[in-house]
């Protein structure tokens, strides 16, 4: 049986001090405008760079890191590396918690802090809010602000509502609509209705973009909208997905997500085998006894 390889983060956690010291010298590559090119860095390099930032700035908590370097915090979250960093604040392993446990925990936090709205929860506990959004559990928490039942609303009505909101608030771009009404924007994404809305500006000239830039842009869209499937990206941005498909970049775009799914499935199999072996050994001991 082939030995399973460890992930970059696992290697970092189990390596000796010398490689870690080298890792603290990691420099983030940038483009001509100074924008950091995370796509050119491995998970291990980003992980080590985060350690360097936290050490240099005396950061011990998630909120401190997010405030000090929002871009770094976002890429750590997008690559699933936040849970690998040892924070000195209430460290929680969301991976070990079921959906019901996370919802119950969120309700407890909201009760203790007298939180009733999404924005307040996001501000009070960004990590908790993020995992609720990633697992599509926000509607299960029971917020008192802007609770709407989209099930009874037709596609035509949702599109008309979106146009009305954009007109009233003078919104012209996707990000502005998402910021003004996150719930409405999400239902447009889920139902594949974004293409029905006429957004102004920011139309990408795909011909002038390299494959690397297009993949990077697509991954940003995936991260912002908690997309995990190809069909979801196709609905969220049909034009972008079409370009990815034409250039043969769909698999590359979803490579990390596919790897995460593979790792989860692998871990589940290993856990099942360990449990089976434990039960088998217990049965053998009983027989001997």
Q: How many β-strand stretches? A: 0
Our estimate of the beta-strand percent is under 5%
Secondary structure category: mainly alpha
Average of pLDDT: 76
Number of helices: 17
- Which H/E pattern describes the elements? HHHHHHHHHHHHHHHHH
Number of domains: 4
CA-based shape: globular
Q: Indicate the percent of residues in helices.
A: 55-70%
**What Rg is obtained from the alpha carbons, in whole angstroms?**
22 Å
Distance between the termini: 32 Å
Poorly predicted spans = 1-24
Give a short account of the largest sheet.
none
How are the SSEs ordered, and which strands pair?
Elements (H helix, E strand, L loop, with lengths): L7 H7 L2 H7 L19 H15 L4 H7 L1 H9 L20 H15 L4 H7 L1 H9 L3 H4 L13 H14 L5 H7 L1 H9 L20 H14 L5 H7 L1 H9 L3 H4 L1 H34 L1
Helix pairs in contact: 1-3, 4-5, 7-8, 10-12, 11-12, 14-15
Which short descriptors sum up this protein?
single chain, 289 residues, mainly alpha, 62% helix, globular
Give an overview in words:
With 289 residues, this protein is mainly alpha-helical. It has 4 domains: 8-84, no CATH class; 94-141, no CATH class; 148-201, no CATH class; 204-278, no CATH class. 62% of the residues lie in helices and 0% in strands. It is built from 17 helices and no strands. It has helices spanning 8-14, 17-23, 43-57, 62-68, 70-78, 99-113, 118-124, 126-134, 138-141, 155-168, 174-180, 182-190, 211-224, 230-236, 238-246, 250-253, 255-288. The longest helix is centred in the C-terminal third of the chain and has 34 residues, at 255-288. Residues 1-24 have low confidence and may be disordered.
């Amino acid at each position: 049986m082939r030995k399973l390889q460890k992930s970059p983060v696992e290697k970092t956690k189990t390596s000796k001090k010398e490689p870690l010291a080298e890792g603290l010298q990691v420099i983030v590559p940038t483009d001509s405008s100074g924008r950091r090119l995370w796509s050119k860095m491995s998970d291990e390099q980003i992980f080590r760079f985060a350690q360097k930032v936290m050490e240099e700035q005396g950061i011990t908590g998630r909120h401190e890191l997010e405030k000090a370097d929002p871009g770094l915090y976002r890429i750590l979250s997008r690559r699933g590396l936040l849970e690998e960093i040892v924070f000195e604040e209430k460290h929680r392993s969301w991976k070990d918690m079921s959906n019901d446990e996370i919802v119950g925990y969120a309700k407890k936090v909201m009760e203790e802090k007298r939180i009733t709205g999404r924005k307040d929860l996001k501000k009070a506990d960004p990590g908790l809010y993020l995992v609720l959004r990633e697992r599509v559990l926000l509607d299960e928490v029971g917020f008192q602000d802007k609770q709407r039942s989209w099930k009874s609303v037709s596609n035509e009505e949702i599109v008309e509502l979106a146009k009305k909101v954009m007109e009233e608030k003078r919104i012209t771009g996707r990000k502005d609509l998402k910021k003004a009404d996150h719930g409405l924007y999400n239902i447009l994404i889920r139902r594949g209705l974004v293409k029905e809305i006429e957004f102004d500006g920011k139309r990408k000239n795909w011909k002038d973009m390299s494959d690397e830039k297009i993949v990077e842009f697509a991954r940003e869209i995936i991260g912002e909208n908690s997309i995990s499937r190809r069909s979801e990206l196709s609905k969220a941005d049909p034009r972008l997905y079409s370009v990815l498909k034409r250039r043969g970049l769909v698999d590359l775009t979803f490579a990390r997500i596919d790897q995460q799914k593979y790792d989860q499935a692998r871990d589940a199999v290993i856990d099942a085998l360990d449990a089976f072996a434990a039960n088998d050994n217990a049965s053998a001991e009983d027989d001997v006894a």
